[in-house]
Sequence to fold (195 residues):
Amino acid sequence: MRTIKLKKDPLKLLNDVLKHLKASPDLGIFKCVQCGMCSSVCPAAKRTDYDPREMLRRVLQDDETVVEDESIWYCFSCYTCNSVCPSGNNACEVNQILRQMAIDKGDIQKIESFTPYGDSFINKGVGSIPDKYYDDMVKDAGSNCMDIKRDIQNIRSDLGLGSYILPDDSIKEIDSILKNSGFIGRIEMVKRCNK
Ligand code: SF4
Ligand code: SF4
Fold:
């Protein structure tokens, strides 16, 4: 006779995700029907072994090893999965929560590559693609992708938008928020951990 051991709390990981500070109140993970629409449109799933449907299955089945799985770091937060999910679920958000759990467990070196985005907020007051990634973008998407970058002010003007370069006063104000909220300290801490 085979004995099946039941877990004390078979929904622990799922509940931890839902209770997480980052979780939206309408995160529809319980409604995931495992249809795979998210995976079928996910650009990361096309190029890597990351699979949002599989990630969600592991959360629903309380497989805590998903937090340590290297593949969760291949999502690049495009939210395409969210736009097609028939249940209104957000695999991208679940992914971000799992990453935060991995960081809380000490996997801090994984976020080093994100620190240049933080520097952009600190130096310019807005998020933008860091210069150090331009060469990779051209390699992956061709040199045309830089045309938008070069012509950004004209494109914004055609769309009736102002400059994305903030005035100095606004940058100073944002700097103060980033300092007082601990954001700058956290970015520096991540950089130190990777030296
Ligand atoms: S998250 Fe949505 S799209 Fe993805 S498997 Fe679940 S129900 Fe389907
Ligand atoms: S946000 Fe992540 S999981 Fe969703 S489609 Fe984009 S790369 Fe895939």
In short: The pocket of iron/sulfur cluster (ligand 1) is lined by residues 32-38, 52-53, 56, 85-87, 89, 91 (CB under 6 Å). The chain has two domains: 12-106, 110-193. The chain has a mean pLDDT of 91. The chain is about 50% helix and 0% strand.
